[in-house]
Amino acid sequence: MPETMVELAQMMQAAGVNRLYAKKLAPNDNSKNQVYLGGDFTALNILPHGSVYTDTDETSGSVRNRAKAVIDFYWLGDNGNVQHAPSAQLILYPNYPEVRLSGFLKNCRSAPSDIMRVREEGRVMFFGITNDGKIISHAAGQNSNLAKAIHAQDQLDETGVFLRIPLNTDEIDTREQLLTVLRKIHQMYWVASQKLGKDAMSHSYAARNGGGYTLEALLGISPNGYSEPDYLGWEIKQYGVRDFVNFSPKSPVTLMTPEPTAGEYQDLGVEFFLKNYGYPDRSGKPDRLNFGGKYVCGYDAHHLTGVRLDLEGYDFKAGKISDMGGGLVLLTKQDIVAAKWGFGGMLEHWNRKHAKAAYVPSLFRKPPPEYSFSSKILLCEQTDFSMFLAAVVGGSVYYDPGIKIENVSSDKPKIKKRSQFRVAHKNLPELYKNSDFTSLF
């Protein structure tokens, strides 16, 4: 059994842990009452988890007002070995809101039942995170040296209910690592437009939307559609500006591009959706239907498509989710759900990908197409899905699709899908607890 923080760190690292956190346990933090992980969804930024799904009681068929997320959870043994706790899961209570950990003792012989079944003050639970998404935990009793060491600390970084434990004295903050790399990129001044290919090599890129691809190539990021952060746990967002003095952006920020998970769009297909709610191309391109426009929550139906953006299963007065089976919806004038993005999938995507984000301004010139990246960037940290929904309700975040079908009358119509949620740059701070413009020098 580890007696000191050094011993615990060594054992955790030997088990593959690269991030370590501690949580001071309250009397109610036990196997009966579950372990409280915060009064919002911040814990989902820290603890890797699977898909978020709504819990259904199979015996009655009723849907409970909560959601769950599967986790790959283990207990660290006295000799450094780890044992799987297969029933461990995260439970989300949107009405509060809060997240709790449950099932962490069930079907695991080496689980510290003597510590986690009691209501003692002063206990501490450690959470080690591995690169492959495992959570390796250890519990320290109230009279242990480990628990006393944590309670004696007053300089550990806090994120929600978690305290960040450095694994070694020379541990480098990913924020500083990111700033160092962006500083080198800024010092390159004008860089040829490029895109990283499947061969992991940079290739010339002539299209006008090369700013993001160029920055990703310089960072060694392959373009992908995965819902994971881009670089060292940071989501990297490039945006074009007219100059590096006023930083006036040329376009809003695309936050994410999830496909609808329900409604006619999903059930009857995109072609059906476009033929019912799309409109002829406004520039006169023949045999083409578009579905575009700006959809702000609470506004009337769009004049071209006949649908409006709303929230289903959301208590507008309390500012909380009231039904995890709900989501963001496009409704017709008859309240038919044309498209829906379920809360579970949106929550999972937002908290995982946007926990930390860097917004990097760029200038463009041609010929040939080149980009220069600013020495002043916006760093945003600590978000929560409730902040995203509040911005939707307030109109700062809106739906701005670019969906189309070409050759509508042919046997092989061509469909392009692009559902995107966007925000103006000036409203980005609404989505994060901490945000500041940082100079690289």
User: What is the CATH top level name of the largest domain?
Assistant: Alpha Beta
Number of domains: 2
Strand % is 25-35%
- Overall geometry: globular
Helix content: 10-25%
Oligomer: single chain
The total of helices stands at: 10
- Any low-confidence stretches, pLDDT <50, length ≥5? none
Structural class by SSE content: alpha+beta
For the largest beta-sheet, the strand count, sense and barrel status come to: 7 strands, mixed
Strand order of the largest sheet: 6-5-10-9-1-12-11
Distance between the termini: 46 Å
What's the pLDDT, averaged over the residues?
A: 91
* Alpha carbon gyration radius: 24 Å
The tally of beta strands, per DSSP, is: 32
Report on the structure:
With 441 residues, this protein is α+β, with helices and mostly antiparallel strands. The chain has 2 domains: 5-165, At1g16640 B3 domain; 175-439, Alpha-Beta Plaits, CATH 3.30.70. The model has no long low-confidence stretch (mean pLDDT 91). The strands form 8 sheets. The protein has a 7-stranded mixed sheet, with helices on one face. Strands 13, 16, 25, 26, 27 and 32 form a 6-stranded mixed sheet that branches. Strands 2-8-7-4-3 form a 5-stranded antiparallel sheet. It is globular and about 75 Å long. The protein starts with a helix and ends with a strand.
